[in-house]
Amino acid sequence: MRERILNGIGIGLLAVCFAVALGRILWPTERGSTGADVVTIRIAHWQLESGVREALDAIGREYEKLHPDVRIQQIPIPERIYPNWLITQLIGGTAPDIIQIGIGITEERIARFFVPITELVELPNPYNKGTELEKVPMLNTFFDGMQGGYQENLLEYYGVPLSGTSIRVYYNLGLLKEITGSDKLPASYREFIDLCKATLAFAKANNRTIVPIAGSKYNGPLLMNALFASQTQKLMDQLSPTGTLVTDPTLTMEWLAQNKWSPNSPEVLSGLTLMREVSEFLQPGFMQLQRDDATFYFVQGRSLMICSGSWDSTSIRSQSPFTVGVGRIPFPTPDDPEFGPFTKGRISEAGAVSAVSLGLTRSSENPAIAQDFLLFLGSQPANRVWTNVSRWIPAVVGVEPHPDAAPFQPLMDGYAPGFPLPNQPDAARIYNTNINDLFGPEGSPQKFADRLSVGYLEAQKSDLTRLIRSTSMNSKRRDTVVAALAVQRAKDPGDAKLDEKLDEALQSISSIERGYYLNKAALRATETALAKP
Amino acid sequence: MPLPISKTKALLEWKLYLFIVPSVLLIAIFSYYPTISAIYHSFFMWGGGDTKEFIGLKNFTDILGDKVFWTSFITIGILVIANVFRMIPSIFLAVLIHRLKSDRWQYWYRVMVVIPMIVPGLVTLFIWKFFFDPNLGVLNAALDASHLKTLLVHMDQFFGWGVFYEGVPTAWLGEPALIIPALIIWGFPWIGAVGVLIFLAGLQSIGTEVYEAADLDGVTPFQKFLHIELPLIMTQVRLSMVLMIIGTLQGFGLQFLLLGPDGGAGGRGMVPGLWMFNRAFIAGEFGYACALGLFLFVFILGLTWINNKFVKVDK
Amino acid sequence: MNTPPATVRRKTGDLSKHIMIWAILALELLPFYMMIQISLKTNKMFYENTWLPALPQDWVWKNYVDAFHLIMPFVANSVVVSVTATVGALFFSLLGAYFFARYKMPGGNALWAAFLLLMLLPGVANIVTLFALLQSLNLLNTLWALIILGISGGQVFCIYVLRNFIEELPKDLFEAAEMDGASHLKQLIHVVIPMSGPIIGTLAILQFLGSWNDFLMPLVILRDPQLFTIGVGLIYLDGEYVKQWGSVMAAFFVASLPLLIIFLFTMKLFVRGLSAGAVKG
Lengths: 533, 315, 281
Fold this sequence. Notes:
By secondary structure, chain A is an alpha/beta fold.
């Protein structure tokens, strides 16, 4: 009997829970509800860092004040499951109206699922009315000309960026004072290395476990790749035919095939030596650790420095019980005894590109309203809210960054960066699988360079083949557009707008084909190089 | 046994068919249709939605050259063998409980074995994920405290593994070489409540006279197990093993949750099911994923057929 | 039953067994213990004192407040889905099992094979096309999809077990009811159900557990965070960059609460039901 009563109570409790839960679902309250006349615009992203969700909410509320019949709902998705969530939503047709472009996005997906906004952003942004940007085309209201929302190979703008980014070194100021007696941050690479050595000496003398730099497979390479680029600056000058300041992966690969540089070039070896020297001041085994492990290390006061992006500033600051100092990456100066010869000087951040790019999906149920909200997001007033709440760098011109974000504003002084090692998928795989030969206890720059020499050409072949295929497909897609426009023009000749569009489309094909032929040339060079004994 | 029925009576009892209609509808729509559709789509290049392009057997020829897929079979093979060993503690516990003299204790232990089931499997998995954390994780703390860590470091230096270092927190899920061990270790001591209870029930049928005879013959506890208990629970063990093998072969939830859809660092945790998921929902190659799934399906079906044909058990 | 005759009970020989059993059970319950003791600490407290629980006056109840906010919506959704799926699965399974167990109806064998095949069928290939199917049925991003899938999947095992069970029931009970003019439905209600309490209970619990632990289909199907079930919710929590482990563990505990309630009250039923069912299997 007792058992029956107990069972009964158990089932009864469960029934109550069920009723409550069901009620919640069938009659949702506040944010979940949508009356017949209320439109919900959904916006999805992966930025779970501190501050971002709050900032987007604040911007959403501002918009709702202007448009009381609209609700803005945020859908933050963790980075790790973002790619498959994205695909299922896009293909399933249930995608939110606005989606952050970046992770899990390929050109094919953008072209297929997102709305190009080029025409929209060539006009001034109505939400900039009353500011100095009132008459300025929206494109130009961003510090980088909205480069962060531009898709190179598709030759269209797809996203409205919200933020700027930069990489800095964070310092534990309290600990710094203990070690050096002052809170002056190192300005050059030499000073930086001296500081690392001083930290190790300090730790030993006081019997404390302190690591100079907190590392992980995310934070470590962030710092080291930036420093590597300082060693290929002069080489880049020599090799680049047009003196262009932007590194082109295809050109890098072609030069490798033509033996204009190789992993054994003195510049590259110097860069690898630099990386190894720095790696000795990170925790041993740092390549196995994750981003939050390194952050944890730093905020626990077990390391003096950590290298990360401006996007981590709010998270790091809010978790650190000590004052956090922020400094530029310490590049070697030309008069540095070891790494001076190949470098021109510190690297400018003028080429910085905006981030947190938000795109409009084709499957949106309320495209007009979603588009309107997108314009609002890219306006100066909204960006002001953005930087003040999230403490991230603004993307729109004329917005004062929040004092917390000020140290992260891109610094323009300096020189163009050198080229990085090839990072197309297969080349990256060679790099990653052999990286222990650079950082491990038995590793050395020469060993790693030898491994790269062996693997890079072959990897390059498949990377270039892939690039050729995708540029070819892009070009074919454009063909349809051009054909359609040509037919239309044949029907109504004399339409200036149509002429303009057709011209642009033809130009874009030329541009894509240029890329196609460059890739083909690089592939030919690679195959020749491989054929040599 | 269900009662035999004549055709005429069956017609009168036609209403009985209504009982089965909803179930049949459900499995037809949600189980059989997707399977057939998957077989159909494996001959297409399908990006989801309406875009598809017939490519015949290309997907299957691609599978033959797919290194990641074949490596994943090796991984899953290791895991299956490991899982066979992971069944042992459940059997062991069942035998232990069964051999107790006191019935009251037996009953209470049966209840206590069920208690861990309160924590849903998902939560247990996440707690173990936390255990594996390099900095805060309990596993590393336990290894350090018990000085097993030092032992591991020495073994490492001897065997040249390159994973265990003095003073360095071991990243169980971040170090490629440690991923498979982590997948095997998790859930220690590997007790499955349902399994234990099923084995226990099977053991109930053994009478005490058998034990008394064995005692008279001076048989050791282990021999008792081998000759008395094991044969009698063989059906349950065999059924559990078959279900476990099928489940492990196609399962990828464990790997997905612990390591992410890429199979973790170096892709070492990639198993066939996860690769199929990856191809479909991350690379967007739905047709290829169907082909992969079909391949896996045929493979498992083949194993089951072999099992039925050649491995007979006397009741 | 296993009652030994009234000879000397050698309890001392059992001591080693008791020790081993306790050791194994303790290890098995370790995650549970860690979850509870960490849920009442802050990160800092945990770092300083890993193994032992904090003192009662230091317990951080705020963790549970945070956890409720974090996970209640997911728990609610899971409760609805799991309960509905369980009830639905049992309902249809009882009907189906009755069909198979009562008479050897023509076509019965073929249908039975169809069901049996599903138990052995690896469901791997299905996810992709299931997704496409749900899309064309417009069921994506709904909880209904999860419920229907739960019913469809769960009924197979339940029918298997219930059929065996119903077949074992004495035929005269059915005949008596039939002579009283009861329709099949009434026979089901009045004969089968009263006799199968424990088995239905056990199947219900297993079905509930299965639905509760499912995360794959919800992950693929659901878009809106307010619809997430526990499975997806936990993945979500795991994806946060800054983790307050105390709150996370508290959230885990809250996620286990419904199961805790069920088990507390139906423990004996479950144990009995499993044992009874196991003998058949």
